Structure formats: C-alpha cells, structure tokens
C-alpha cells in the first residue's frame, strides 16, 4: 500500500496542470493517467491554434507531451494504469488500479474528463482531424471557404453551426427530426444566417474519404431515401458524456450528469476530494479552461492539506510504502 499526500486520477490539460502545481508545492503527486487514454481528448486532435503561448500552433499530442514532461520535471510521478476501484474515505482515500497497485491518499483530484458522443459510423474515427471534428472553436478556422456540415439539433449544434459560418462558404445542419431542440433564440439567429441551411428528418448513413473527408451519404429518416452531400468538414455536435462511472455512487452529480462542485472551487461533497476539467464543465470544454481548472484543484488541495496538517499534526510521507497483510 503506497501512501501519498495527493493522487490525481486522469490526465489531459486538467490532470497535468494539477500535477505541475502540486509537484511545485512539494506534494509529490502521483498521476494515474490511464493505460490507453493518457493525455485525454487532445491526443486525438491535430493542430491546436488557440492555446496561449504557441503563436505558430501546436499539435495536440505534442502539447500533452510538453505538459507531461513539465509535471515530471517538478517531481510528479506518471503512472500509465487505470483506476478500477475508488473508496472515498476522508483522510485516507483508497485507490486500486487494474495492474494491482494500491494507494491511500489524503487528497484526490478527479480529472477524468468527458467523451464526445460519436455517430458510430465507419471512417468516423479514422478521419478525426482530417475533416471530422467535435469542436468548432478548435477547428473551424481550418475550413475557410469550404462547405461543411454540423450534425445535431440542440443548442450546441446551432451554436457551432452559426459560429462556423464565419469561416465556411456554406454550413448544412443535419438533424434526424423535423423539430430542432435548440432554444428559440438560437433558432431565430440561425434562421437569419444566409450561409446556414437545414437538412431535417435526415441522418448520416455513411462517411466517405480515405486520407481526408470528401462527403457523406444522407438518409431521410421518413422516406428512407439517400442522397450524397459533398462536404470537406463534418462537425458532430450530439452531446458528450462525463466519465463519472468511478464515483457516480459516492459523489453528487448535477442533473446533466456532470460532477458537482462548490461554486467556483474544485471542492466536491467529500472532504479531500477535488475535481477539474471537463468532468465538471459541460459548457466551455476548451484545453485552456481545463488547464485553469486543474490549477484551481491543485491550489484547493494544497490549502486543504496544509489545513489538515495544522488540525491533526499528520503529514503523509509522499513516498511511503507499507506492506499489507
């Protein structure tokens, strides 16, 4: 059993930023980054142009590698493993991993992120970053003067569609029903946009392209008829799901399924448990906001540990390992 002052579950901008701050504070954090998902969603992106400090842009995987190296430079330990069991007990939170490692931690930061919902079609993942995207703010600039499509009918879909008309020559919104779910204000704004057109009662049946997206097959959900839509960009805006399965039964979730925290802090409803990044943020979902959230969580955890030590006189030895029977 390894005893730590702080364990960070999840990586990406939130987890790695929390690790940088916690390590610089001398807390020697362990980051359980995931065996497959280390680095988070940015590992699946290409060029990131809106992260401050990179005027020429930076590839998503390179940005995550830089963050990882920076965390390790200050003393964070990165573990490529998955948490299988989390026991939230104030003062001695228990963590078990898939490879059998066991930790107890005075503080835990949850940076498990969220996952964009996918259409589940062949070629969708293969063309991610090559015409298929889940983030208009991240990738819209690359589709200047092109015909692109947005899939979805809620607020996010209409917001992305109207944002993308700043760059595209035409944006086609594809929604499987006749009625949109977005607010009337957003629908009115979209209806006034001359670059935006609708394909209602429609869904994407196939995605085409080898090295880059060349078009999609659209199927009418009422008649079953299909047609071809030649586009070079496809933005999927059908929602996202926070990764909360580890703690859904032990922490308070909001009505939308995201983890609840106290106001602008990272504090959850359990003492010594903090959260950061997309697992608490269904609205902004940007690398920079996740990084800022990770900073908040690390500072909150640092203050908590200092207060805990003052109250109890107990300070965990960050590298202490004890045998358990």
UniProtKB/TrEMBL annotation:
Q: Say yes or no: keyword ATP-binding present.
A: no
Q: Which UniProt keywords apply?
A: Disulfide bond, FAD, Flavoprotein, NADP, Oxidoreductase, Redox-active center
> What EC number(s) has UniProt assigned to this enzyme?
1.8.1.9
- Top-rank taxon of the source lineage equals Bacteria
| Alphabetical list of Pfam families matching this protein | Pyr_redox_2
What is the UniProt remark on how the cofactor binds and its stoichiometry? Answer: Binds 1 FAD per subunit.
Q: Where is the FAD/NAD(P)-binding domain?
A: 5-294
What this protein catalyses is: [thioredoxin]-dithiol + NADP(+) = [thioredoxin]-disulfide + NADPH + H(+)
Q: What class of enzyme is it?
A: oxidoreductase
Which cofactors does the annotated protein need, by name?
FAD
Family per record: Belongs to the class-II pyridine nucleotide-disulfide oxidoreductase family.
NCBIfam families the UniProt entry points to: TRX_reduct (TIGR01292)
Oligomeric and partner information: Homodimer.
Q: What name has this protein been given in UniProt?
A: Thioredoxin reductase
Query: Which organism does this sequence originate in?
Result: Brevibacterium samyangense
Whichever gene encodes this chain, its name is trxB
